[in-house]
Specification:
Structural class: alpha/beta
Oligomer: single chain
Shape: globular
Strand order of the largest sheet: 8-7-6-5-2-1-10-9
Number of strands: 18
């Protein structure tokens, strides 16, 4: 084969692998950092507080690009950014589209967006873009302000969602009086499908987060997902297991609102940890729990510290979203101990006022990110091993995970299941000198001040959680592998 043919074959193989990289299976290993583009970093790196957080504050694509090292330093390898299209006045968050073919000038130029994505890729960071197909900006009935959906025939009749238990009303009426697109209109449907395909192709996004999923009939989402061709995670803002799970028939994953509710209930309000047992029984309704997006904070809910003001509980909840099944998502500012709540814009603080400094949570998240990434525990079954009101433990491959909801009281439990051999030494991921030895088929686990523990065999703390590396462990785990 000639040099040109060899190069062509190499290039073809490289492009094929790049295309595969953004599919759902490849997203399982990723750890996502969510940013609101307007609130993350300014182009000039100025640190002045935002005068009015209900309006644009000055964050840009260039500012985000300049701060990628901050994100990478915590071990994140994916970012979720705000919708990028042009918005009506006041749409700093990106959810009020006015022209889906234009890039929001407040964030920067199309080239600056491409530069951001290229720079992220150079650092091994994938980029997920937020997209909206349900509605446009608040223009009342003056659709002439919207491109390309400038006719009343492109929208459902004007009505408001008042009863969220009425699915027809949810799909056909307006959320907060935002004009509701009619995806049964052939022009609207095809335009949205062509738009998402072109957006991904033009800018090279690796995944999409989809806003307001229940507000559109799920059949549309199957076509939308196919047109996107990359991993999709949908917002189904609901705690009902079966209701949320239904949308995974059409999209790769959803935001894990059922888990979010349990995290607040158990770690925040200190409800019995036996609720996790019931939770995972209910989670069987999902087609693939490994593709769900786990979160503690996001832009639509009050921050955990606003609700509970307990860093110990927050750390436990953060550890849980990393250690359980699913893809962990950390909302910007959580690592800086932000505690906004109340109206939406109050939990959308400007990050630059923090100075992007090191905190106990930046270090904590760094350990979680590197631990999950290099051990590969995300690929393995989660098997419950112990549960009572204030202690919950499970294994994934040879690793042991333990949590408590009682940060004011130290918790010790004796673990008696037989997976490890006598003499095996298990050490904590955060403190490698904190070890226990298996004796007579059992070992004690002590959780101090609410701290979670991730235990693994001494000398194999990270990077060895893989069936086949240790015949003894592989044989014992064979029946638990998913």
């Amino acid at each position: 084969m000639g040099k040109k043919l060899l190069f062509a074959a190499f290039l073809s193989a490289t492009l094929f692998l790049s295309a595969l990289a953004a599919t759902a299976d490849y997203w399982r290993s990723r750890q996502i950092y969510q940013v609101l583009t307007d609130r993350f970093a300014r182009s000039d790196d100025s640190r002045d507080a935002c005068a009015d957080v209900s309006k644009y504050c000055g964050g840009t694509f260039l500012g985000l690009k300049n701060k990628l090292d901050y994100i990478a330093s915590m071990g994140f390898d994916a970012i979720w950014i705000s919708p990028v299209v042009e918005n009506t006045d006041g749409g700093y968050h990106g959810y009020w589209a006015s022209d889906i073919y234009q890039i929001n000038k407040n964030f920067g130029t199309p080239q600056e967006l491409k530069d951001l994505i290229n720079a992220a890729h150079d650092k091994g960071i994938w980029v997920m873009v937020d997209v909206v197909a349900n509605h446009v900006g608040p223009v009342g009935m003056d659709f002439s302000k919207i491109n390309p959906f400038n006719s009343d025939s492109h929208y459902h009749s004007r009505c408001q969602i008042n009863n969220w238990d009425n699915q027809t009303e949810v799909e056909y009426c307006r959320l907060a009086d935002l004009p509701d697109l009619d995806q049964n209109n052939s022009y609207v449907r095809q335009t949205l499908l062509d738009w998402i395909k072109n957006l991904i192709t033009e800018y090279g996004f690796d995944g999409i987060r989809i806003d307001t999923v229940p507000e559109i009939h799920p059949d549309f989402w199957a076509a939308f997902a196919d047109a996107a061709g990359v991993y999709q995670i949908g917002e189904v803002f609901n705690g009902n297991y079966k209701y949320v799970a239904n949308y995974q028939k059409y999209l790769n994953g959803t935001l894990n609102y059922p888990l979010y509710g349990q995290l607040y209930n158990i770690f925040g309000s200190r409800a019995s940890m036996t609720n996790f047992k019931t939770h995972y029984e209910n989670m069987e309704a999902f087609l693939d729990q490994f593709l769900l997006g786990n979160f503690v904070d996001n832009h639509d809910v009050p921050r955990f510290l606003h609700q509970f003001n307990d860093i110990r509980a927050l750390k436990a909840a953060l550890a849980f979203i990393y250690c359980t099944k699913g893809i962990p998502i950390t909302y910007y500012g959580t690592e800086q101990l932000f505690n906004g709540g109340g109206a939406d814009h109050i939990n959308r603080e400007a990050l630059w006022t923090s100075g992007y400094g090191e905190t106990e949570l930046t270090a904590y998240l760094r350990t979680l990110n590197h631990g999950r990434k290099h051990s590969g525990w995300y690929n393995h079954a989660m098997v419950e091993r112990f549960v009572d009101d204030s202690f919950y433990a499970f294994t994934r491959c040879d690793m042991f995970f333990a949590f408590t909801n009682q940060p004011d009281q130290n918790q010790t439990r004796t673990i008696t299941y037989h997976m490890y051999d006598d003499g095996d030494v298990l050490c904590d991921m955060w403190n490698p000198d904190d070890c226990v030895t298996v004796q007579n088929g059992k070992f004690d686990v002590t959780l101090i001040n609410g701290a979670a523990k991730v235990l693994s065999l001494k000398g194999e703390r990270l990077g060895k959680c893989s069936i086949g590396w240790n015949k003894k462990i592989a044989e014992k785990l064979f029946l638990s592998i998913e």
